[in-house]
């Protein structure tokens, strides 16, 4: 049986860990002490699109991990926490396990590559939210894509098969970046707008001015990605267009940034829309919508930290 360490068992990490626990030996690592303790003592309950209770050990600090080799380490913490977490995992990374990142934003892969271990980069269209210690809501089912950045495709196919066999459909492909870019643009647009409208998802679809902002952001982000040599596996805003057309129902989920702001946590704006702004500046591409939205989210972060400073957590 494969041994998997899931770093960050918040929304998506919790769903991944709970699903994998049926077919692998899973250990969770999460900075939310109450969440980690509840999982170890009572299990992790997944509700919504998936309904199950999974039991696996979970710790809040890497020093609590036993000295045993893992076959894979899955990173699902906030992008800003990647470097700090990597610095605590020396023993677990010594034998070069497969490192998998399904994190939002750019910059995570480069940090994992520095370990010298095989690295798989991926993107998932699943969506979820942290509800309370030991409880995660699975909001949206979706496909996951992953592929090698360091190492061979055949050396990581097993992990994709394990995800698929555990109920999380996964495609392992040689060049995953087109899928990553598609999900990246979607997150750069919809996540910050969700935060700016206070987590009210209807505002992203029913207020014409907000729809115009979304379209402007999407155009700027896609222009920057193409200027960087990127392409898209699928139209990044396809889901948004389907919701607008009434082809698929609108969910209650307004994105992880809205949830971060609500609990006083820092967002991933610098690894998403802020990253686009930085690249656009380097390339000489005007991105006024991205620049304004990034500044507004940073203002929201400042206000939220003052309102709920004790609620900050790293889990995604």
Automatic annotation (TrEMBL):
It holds the Pfam family ApbA. InterPro entries: 6-PGluconate_DH-like_C_sf, 6PGD_dom2, ApbA, Ketopantoate_reductase, KPA_reductase, KPR_N, NAD(P)-bd_dom_sf. Residues 175-301 form the Ketopantoate reductase C-terminal domain. Residues 4-150 form the Ketopantoate reductase N-terminal domain. Its EC number is 1.1.1.169. Coiled coil: none annotated. One of its GO terms (cellular component) is cytoplasm. It catalyses: (R)-pantoate + NADP(+) = 2-dehydropantoate + NADPH + H(+). Pathway: Cofactor biosynthesis; (R)-pantothenate biosynthesis; (R)-pantoate from 3-methyl-2-oxobutanoate: step 2/2. GO terms for molecular function: 2-dehydropantoate 2-reductase activity; NADP binding. The keyword Transmembrane does not apply. Keywords: NADP, Oxidoreductase, Pantothenate biosynthesis. The keyword NADP applies. One of its GO terms (biological process) is pantothenate biosynthetic process. Catalyzes the NADPH-dependent reduction of ketopantoate into pantoic acid. PANTHER family: 2-DEHYDROPANTOATE 2-REDUCTASE, 2-DEHYDROPANTOATE 2-REDUCTASE-RELATED. Belongs to the ketopantoate reductase family. This is 2-dehydropantoate 2-reductase. It comes from Ramlibacter monticola.
């Amino acid at each position: 049986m494969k041994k998997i360490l899931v770093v960050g068992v918040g929304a998506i990490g919790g769903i991944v860990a709970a699903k994998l626990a049926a077919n692998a030996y899973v250990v969770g690592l999460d900075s939310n002490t109450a969440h980690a303790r509840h999982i170890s003592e009572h299990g992790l309950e997944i509700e919504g699109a998936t309904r199950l209770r999974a039991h696996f050990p979970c710790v809040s600090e890497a020093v609590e991990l036993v000295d045993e080799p893992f076959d894979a380490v899955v990173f699902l913490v906030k992008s800003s926490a990647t470097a700090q977490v990597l610095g605590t995992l020396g023993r677990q990374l010594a034998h070069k396990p497969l490192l998998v990142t399904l994190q939002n934003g750019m910059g995570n892969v480069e940090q994992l590559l520095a370990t010298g271990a095989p690295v798989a980069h991926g993107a998932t269209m699943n969506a979820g939210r942290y509800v309370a210690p030991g409880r995660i809501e699975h909001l949206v089912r979706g496909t996951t894509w992953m592929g090698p950045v360091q190492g061979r495709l055949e050396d990581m196919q097993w992990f994709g098969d394990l995800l698929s066999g555990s109920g999380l459909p996964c495609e392992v492909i040689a060049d995953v970046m087109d899928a990553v870019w598609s999900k990246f643009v979607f997150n750069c647009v919809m996540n910050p707008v969700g935060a700016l409208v206070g987590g009210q998802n209807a505002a992203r679809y029913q207020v014409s001015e907000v729809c115009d902002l979304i379209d402007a952001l999407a155009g700027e982000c896609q222009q920057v990605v193409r200027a960087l040599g990127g392409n898209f596996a699928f139209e990044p805003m396809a889901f948004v267009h389907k919701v607008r057309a009434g082809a698929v129902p609108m969910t209650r989920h307004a994105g992880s940034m809205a949830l971060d702001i609500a609990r006083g946590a820092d967002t991933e704006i610098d690894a998403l829309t802020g990253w686009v702004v930085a690249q656009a500046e380097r390339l000489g591409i005007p991105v006024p919508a991205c620049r304004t939205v990034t500044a507004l989210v940073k203002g929201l972060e400042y206000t939220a930290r003052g309102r709920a400073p004790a609620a900050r957590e790293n889990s995604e």
